[in-house]
Amino acid sequence: MSGVRSPSADGKASPAEARGMERLLRVVVPVLMLAGLVGLWQWYVTAFAVPHYILPSPVRVAGALVTDWQVLGPALLVTLKITFSALFLALVGGLALAILLVQSRWIEIALGPYLVILQVTPIVAIAPLILIYAPTTQTALLICAFIVAFFPVLSNTVQGLKSTDHNLIDLYRLYGASRMQTLWLLRLPAALPYFLAGLKIAGGLSLIAAVVAEFAAGSAGAGSGLAFRILESQFRLNIPRLFAALLLLSAAGVAIYAATSLLAHLLLHKWHESAIRREK
Amino acid sequence: MNATAISAAHEAPGRPLVSLRGVTKTFSTGTTALAGVDLDIAPGEFISLLGPSGCGKSTVLRMLAGLADPSTGTIDWPQARVDGAGRPDLDMSFVFQEATLMPWGTVARNVWLPLRLKGLSMKAARPRIDEALEMVGLGGFADAYPRELSGGMKMRVSIARALVTRPVVMLMDEPFAALDEITRQKLNDDLLRLWETFGWTVVFVTHSVFEAVYLSQRVMVMAARPGRIIDGIDVDRAEETPESWRTSETYVRLCQRASASLVSAIAGTDHL
C-alpha cells in the first residue's frame, strides 16, 4: 500500500484504507496458507524420514516437474487440447441445441429423455463402446469429454432462454419483432448469465472428463495425456512424477476456472445482480 | 345494473377510435375473465379502467394491444386499417406495471428498442431517443444502466421508450402502482402534460380511485367474477390547475362516486 497515513483518532481506518487493506489480505492470506501447508508437508517428510516412493517431499515434486518436463509437458498439452476442444464443442453444441429445444415444446418432449439418459449414464461405462466406434483414441476421448461437458451448458441455457421476462416478450410482439430479433436481442442476452454459469461448470467438467476418459481408454504411447502418465508413474512407483502430473492437472483446472470466472465477470459486471458488489 | 345500458350512455361522440362489442374472454382454465364488455373509446381520450384485481381490466388492455384475442365479441378500429391478425396499423405503445427494461442495455439502448425493431440504426434514432429522454426529465441518463436508477426513474425510461415511436394509442397497465406516493404524484402530472402535448389516446388501468379520477376524462368502473363494466363516470376537469383540481369539490365528489361504485363492485363478490 502506498501512503503511510496514520489511522484517525478513534483508531478506525478510513474506508479507502480498509478497502486497500482487504485487497492486500485477499492475496496475503491464501499465500501464507499455501506456504504453511507446503512447509508442514516438507517438515513431515523430513522429520519422519518418509521414503519418496510413499510420499515425496515438495522439493522432490518440484524437482520432478523440472526434470520430467519433456514427458509431462507434451502430455499436458494433449490433455489440454482434448479439454478445450471438448469445451468448445460443448459450448457450441449446448447453445445450438438449447435454442432448438425452446423453439417447440414437442422438440423438447421428443429429445429430452435421451439427453437425460446421456447425462446420467456414467461416462466411464460408455467409454469402452465409444472406443470401439470412434476412428481414433483421441476422437473417442474428445467425444467422452464433450458428452460430459455439454449437458450443463445445455440445461443452463435452456433454463435461461425460458426465463425471459414475459412482459418483454409481449413488448417485442407488440412492436412486431421477428423471431430472429426476439432471439438475438432478447432471449439470448437474457440467457447469458445462465449460459455463463453452465460454462463455469463445463470448464471444470471437460478437464475431469478428459482425464477419466483417458483412464478408461488406457491409451499409451506418444500421443498420451496426463492421465496415462499418472497411471504409468504409479506402475513404476515414480511417485514424485505422479505428484508433479497431479500438480499440473490441478493448475490447469484452477486456470480454467479462473478464466471462465473472469469471462463471466467481464460480460456481466455492468448489469447482472450476480456480479454487483453491495456495500454493507 | 345493466352494463350495456351504462356504457351506451357513455359512448364517445363522433366516430370512436376503437369499439368493443360483447367482448368476452374465457381462459383455458375455464375462468371467465370478461363477460360481455361494450366500450367505445374516442380519439385523443384519456380513459381509465378502474377495478379490483381479477376484474379483467388488464385483459381488456392486452386485447387492445393485440396480445390476447377475445373469446367472443368484436374489437373494431373504425379509423384504421386492420391486418390479418386483427392488429390495427396504428402505432401503439404499452407501459407495464414494472418498468420492464432490459438490464443489459443502457437507458439509451432500451429507449432505442422500438425503433431498432423497425430497422432504425442507433445513429439515426439518437435525436429521437434524446428527445424522448428529455421529455421524461432524464436528459443526462442516456448511458446509465437500469440498475443504477430508482424505481421512479426506471418507470420514466419505460415511458420514454413508449413515447419514442410517437404512438397514437398509449396503453398503460397500472404503471405507477409500485411507486411511492410522491413519485406517483409527480409522474401523474408529467403524464398529463405529455398527453396534452402529444394528443395520445390513453387507456389507463389502475386500482386507485384517486389516480383514475385525477387523470382521466372518463372512468370505467369494473367488477370481478365475471369481469364486466358496471359504471362509467365522466370527469369534467374544466380549467383546474393540477393543484386546485386535486383539492376541488368536484374531484372529491367524483372520487366518492367512484369509490361507491368500486365498493358495490367488490360487495358483489364473496371474497377479494
TrEMBL record, chain A:
Q: Where in the cell is it found?
A: Cell membrane
PROSITE patterns according to UniProt: ABC_TM1
Q: Where are the transmembrane segments?
A: 24-44, 82-102, 114-134, 140-161, 182-201, 207-231, 243-268
**UniProt cross-references to CDD domains, sorted A to Z:** TM_PBP2
What's the protein name?
Putative aliphatic sulfonates transport permease protein SsuC
Coiled coil regions, renumbered to chain: none
Provide the family line.
Belongs to the binding-protein-dependent transport system permease family.
Gene Ontology cellular-component annotations: plasma membrane
One example of a Gene Ontology biological process annotation: transmembrane transport
Tell me if Cell inner membrane is a UniProt keyword of this record: no
Question: What are the ABC transmembrane type-1 domain coordinates in residue numbering?
Answer: 76-268
Q: Which InterPro entries match?
A: MetI-like (IPR000515), MetI-like_sf (IPR035906)
Its main localization is membrane
Origin species, per record, is: Methylobrevis pamukkalensis
Query: In the record, what lineage is assigned to the organism producing the protein?
Result: Bacteria, Pseudomonadati, Pseudomonadota, Alphaproteobacteria, Hyphomicrobiales
Domain of life, per lineage: Bacteria
Q: How does it sit in the membrane?
A: Multi-pass membrane protein
Q: Which keywords fit this entry according to its UniProt record?
A: Cell membrane, Membrane, Transmembrane, Transmembrane helix, Transport
TrEMBL record, chain B:
Q: Which Pfam families match?
A: ABC_tran
What the entry lists under InterPro entries is as follows: AAA+_ATPase, ABC_transporter-like_ATP-bd, ABC_transporter-like_CS, ABC_transporter_ATP-bind, P-loop_NTPase
Kindly report, in one word, the top-level EC class recorded for this enzyme: hydrolase
Q: Indicate yes or no for the key word Methyltransferase.
A: no
GO molecular function terms listed in the Swiss-Prot or TrEMBL record: ATP binding; ATP hydrolysis activity
Output the SMART domains linked to this UniProt entry: AAA (SM00382)
Domain ABC transporter, which positions? 18-251
Which UniProt keywords are present, listed alphabetically?
ATP-binding, Hydrolase, Nucleotide-binding, Transport
What Enzyme Commission number does this protein have? Answer: 3.6.3.-
Q: Which family does it belong to?
A: Belongs to the ABC transporter superfamily.
Name recorded for this polypeptide? Aliphatic sulfonates import ATP-binding protein SsuB
Lineage, uppermost ranks: Bacteria, Pseudomonadati, Pseudomonadota, Alphaproteobacteria, Hyphomicrobiales
